[in-house]
Amino acid sequence: MSINEKQYLHEMGISTWELSHPERLAGYQSPTLDLQSSCKLLLVSPSCPENETAMMFERVLKSIKLTLDDALHLEPERLSLLGEHDLEWVWFAGCDVSNNINAKQLTSPLLKDIDGNNEQRRALWQQICSYS
Fold first, then answer.
1. Residue 119 and residue 53: Cα distance in Å, rounded?
2. Which long-range contacts (CB under 8 A, 24 or more apart) does 104-111 make?
3. Is 123 a residue whose pLDDT tops 90?
4. In Å, how far are 4, 7, 11, 85, 116 from 45, measured between CA atoms?
5. Is the predicted pLDDT of residue 22 greater than 80, yes or no?
């Protein structure tokens, strides 16, 4: 990384680090998250559904003939760890979309922003219907 790049990152408030012994990481592979075959929908979102949003999440699952047992929540920063899976659906809620996953993809704002918002609910429903 050049000095100009480091200065630019510093001005943005981003700390930079340099490894003292990069050779110690030779051959290192980060662990992967292998999902059970029962997981059919992965909710990628900064926040896990709770209370009212969990009930709304369950209603959406029912509309695509899934249950809570068929779904798993994952924070966006952990998506790169995803390994083996048999996913049918990936729902990106309130985060950037990754096109590296071979599954039906839904995108939406955070679940708490959809609940009670007819326009957002309609947009989500149209995405679901586009796969039937």
1. 16
2. 104/131, 110/45, 110/46, 110/47, 111/45, 111/47, 111/49, 111/53, 111/56, 111/57
3. yes
4. 34, 32, 29, 18, 19
5. no
Tokens of 67: 């249950």
Supply 100's token pair: 């590296």
SS (H, E, C) 28-68: CCCCCECCCCCCCEEEECCCCCCHHHHHHHHHHHHHCCCCH
- Residue 129 tokens, joined: 């219907």
3-state class (DSSP) for residue 83: coil
For range 17-44, the mean pLDDT: 85
**Residue positions counted in the chain:** 132
Q: Domain coordinates of the chain in residue numbers?
A: 41-129
CATH topology of domain 41-129: Rossmann fold (3.40.50)
